[in-house]
Amino acid sequence: MSATTKTRTAPEGRTASQASAITRLLGDRRLPVLVTAALFLAMYLTGLGRYQNYGFAEPQVFLNLFIDNGYLLVAAVGATFVIMSGGIDLSVGSLIGFTTMFTAWLVERQGLPLIVVVPIALGVGAFGGFLMGYVIHNFEIQPFIVTLAGLFLFRGLCLVISKESISISDSTVSTLAQTRVPLGLGELSIGALVALAVLAAAFYVLHYTRFGRRVYAIGGNEQSALLMGLPLGGTKIAVYTVSGFCSALAGLLFMLYIQSGDPLHAVGMELDAIAAVVIGGTLLTGGSGYVIGTLFGVLVLGLIKSIIQFEGTLSSWWTKIATGVLLCAFILIQRAMTARKQT
Amino acid sequence: MSTPSAATASRWRALTHHHLFWPVAVLVALLLINVPFTPDFFAIKMTDGHLYGSLVSIVLFGSPLILVAVGMTLVIATGGIDLSVGAVVAITGALTCSYISDQADQNALAGVFLAMGIGLVAAVVCGLWNGFLVARMGIQPIIATLIIMVAGRGVAQLITDGQIITINSEPYKLIGGGYWLTLPFSIFVVAAVVAVTVALTRKTALGLLVESVGGNAEASRLVGIRSRRIKIMVYMFCALCAGIAGLMISSNTSAADGNNAGLWIELDAILAVVIGGTSLLGGRFSIGGTVIGALVIQTLTTTIYTIGVPTQTNLVFKAAVVIVVCLLQSPKFRAKVFGAKGRGKPAAPAQPAAPADAAPKMEVSR
C-alpha cells in the first residue's frame, strides 16, 4: 500500500537505489508514450537499414505516413477523448463509412456543392455522437452497447443510401484531393494538414482547457468527479459528440483520400482507432494518457503498413497480426503500470 | 376488489414478469408479422425425406449464432465479454478446411474428425489465452479479447494463405449443411450443446458459481470459489462454442474464408444475449433467453427477406432492436418514461423492483 504514494509523488523517493529508480520510471505516466515513440524510432531505423536502396530514407516516405493515415489520426483523436473519459466508441468505423457514402450521395446524386455538404456531414456526425452520449448518460446504458447500436445504425444507413459504391468525380473534390502543400523536404496533402490541425486542437483542449481537465477527472474516477461538482452529464455527452464529429471529419478525409463512397468503407476501423489509442499509451480505464501518444500510435500502425509494402513479399494479413501483437504488448505494459499504482 | 379479477391480475403479472416473457413475445410477434405476407409461413413440407419450411430454415441458419450466443452468455454472466468469437470462427474454419483440403481422400472419416479436432483445439487455445489475460492478468475483457479479434483474422488469412479454401468432403458437409432424421443436422448439434450447457449450469452448482463470480469476483474468491479458474473455463467454453459454429459455417459453404467467416457474429451474439434478458453487468443469465434472442435475430433477418423490405435495411432494423431492448432494460429509462406517466406510484420506489426479467439472483433451477 505504501508503494502508492512513493510511485505517485516522485520527489520524496529520491533514494539513489536502483530499484526505486525503476519503480519511478514504471510509475511515470509518460512511460507508455516514450515506449511507443522509441518503438516508432526503432522501427523506422530498421526500415532505413533494410530498404535504404528502395528509397525508404526519403523524407517523403515519412510524410506519406501522415497522408495515408490522416483519417485514422483524426478518428483516433476522437477515440482518445472517449477512452480518456473511461468510455468506448464502437461506431467510429461505421460513421466514417456513412460519411463517405452520405457526402458522395449528396455531391454526386444531389449535385450539392462540397462547401454545403461538408458542414452538413460534420453536423450529422456530431449529432449522432450527441445522441449516443445522451442515451449513455441519461439512461445509464453501457457505452459499449449504445455505440454498438450506432455501429449497426450507421452501417445500415450506408446501405440504405446505396448498395453500390459511388465514385466521386466532382472537380472540387479531386482538386482538393490532389493538392499538395510543399513543405521543404517533401509535401503534405490537405487531409494530412487537417489531421495535424485536429491533433493540435485536441492537444490544446485536453491539456489546457477546463473541458480537458473534466475529461481526465471523469475518466479517473467518475464518483469523485461528481462529488467535486463537475458537470458529469454535459462532459460525457460532449465527449461522444467530439468523437462523432471527429469520425465524420475522418470520413470526409477518407472520402478525399479514396474519392468514392462505399457502404463497406472503413469496416472495423474503430478497432484500428482503439488500437492506436492503446498503443499510444492511453489507459483504457480512462483518466490517463496523452493525445501525442495517439499520434505515435497511428504512426506505428502506419509504419507497419508501409514496411509491409516495402517488404513486398509479406502479405497484408501480417498487418493485422502485427497490430494484434503490439496491442497485446502495450496492454500488458499498461497492466504492469496500473498494478503498481493501485495495489 | 373482487377476488377473480385480482387473481387474473396476479396471474397476468406473474406471466408478464417471467424473465422469458418479453423475448418470447417479441419472437411470436415477429413470426406473426410474416403470416400476411407469406400465408404458408408456418407450413412445413417434406421433400426428399427432409423437412423444409421457414421455421426449419430459421433454426438452420440461426444455429451458428445460437451456439456463439450460448457461449457468450456464460462469459457475460461473469461480467465479461468476448469480442474474439468472430475471429475464432474464422480460425477454426480455416484450420479445419485447410487440413481437409490437404488430404488425398477428403471423404475419409478419420481425416475429417482429425481436422475438426485440430480446429476445435485451436479454438479452445484461443479461449484459454483470453481467459488467461482476463483472469490472471486482470485486463478488462473487452480489451483482452480485442487482441484476438484484431490478430485472429490475420492468423486465419495466414492459414488459408489469403485464399478462400474450398473443399469437397461429404462427411464434413453433414455438420453444417446436412440432414439427419429429416432435420438439419446442425439442429441436433445445437440441441446437444444447449442441453449440456443447461444441465451443467442449472443441475450442478456451476451456474451459481458463474453468477456469483459475475456478481462480485472478489467476494466469491473470499468465500472460497476459484473465481479465476471459473473465468478461464468460461472463456474456453465460449471459444469452443465459437469453434463449433466455425465448423458449421465453413461446412455449410464448403469453404473457409479467413476474412468474412463469422464477420460481426460477436455483435449479433451479444445482441442475442441482451435480448434474452441477460444483464451485461453480469451476475445472472438465462440460456433459454439467449436461445430465444438468437432466434429473434434470425427471424428478424428472415422476416426482412420475406416481407420484401430491401435487405440492406437489415442493419437499421437491428440497430432499432438494440436500442429499444436496451432502453426497456434500463431502469432509469422506465422510471423516466413509464414512471412519469404516473401508475399511482412514485418513480423512485418503483425503480429498484422494476426489471421484469430480474429473477432472484440466487435462484438455481429455472
Automatic annotation (TrEMBL), chain A:
Q: How does it sit in the membrane?
A: Multi-pass membrane protein
Q: Name one Pfam family in it.
A: BPD_transp_2
The record's annotation in InterPro entries points to:
ABC_transp_permease (IPR001851)
Chief location category:
membrane
- Print the keywords alphabetically: Cell membrane, Membrane, Transmembrane, Transmembrane helix
The answer to keyword Membrane applying to this record is: yes
CDD domains (UniProt xref): TM_PBP1_transp_AraH_like
Record field: transmembrane = 31-49, 61-84, 90-107, 114-135, 141-162, 183-206, 237-259, 271-304, 316-333
Subcellular location, record wording: Cell membrane
Quote the NCBIfam families the UniProt record gives.
PRK11618.1 (NF008630)
Q: Which PANTHER family match?
A: ABC TRANSPORTER PERMEASE PROTEIN YPHD-RELATED-RELATED, INNER MEMBRANE ABC TRANSPORTER PERMEASE PROTEIN YJFF
The name under which this protein is listed is Sugar ABC transporter permease YjfF
From TrEMBL, chain B:
Q: Where in the cell is it found?
A: Cell membrane
User: From start to end residue, where is composition biased (Low complexity)?
Assistant: 346-359
Keyword Ligase on this protein?
Answer: no
Q: Where is this region: Disordered?
A: 342-366
Topological category with respect to the lipid bilayer: Multi-pass membrane protein
Query: Which keywords does UniProt give here?
Result: Cell membrane, Membrane, Transmembrane, Transmembrane helix
Question: Where does the chain cross the membrane?
Answer: 20-39, 51-76, 83-101, 107-129, 141-159, 179-200, 232-249, 261-282, 289-309, 315-333
Q: Which InterPro entries match?
A: ABC_transp_permease
The record's annotation in Pfam families points to: BPD_transp_2
Q: Which domain of life is it from?
A: Bacteria
Q: Provide the protein name.
A: ABC transporter permease
Q: What species is given as this protein's source?
A: Streptomyces akebiae
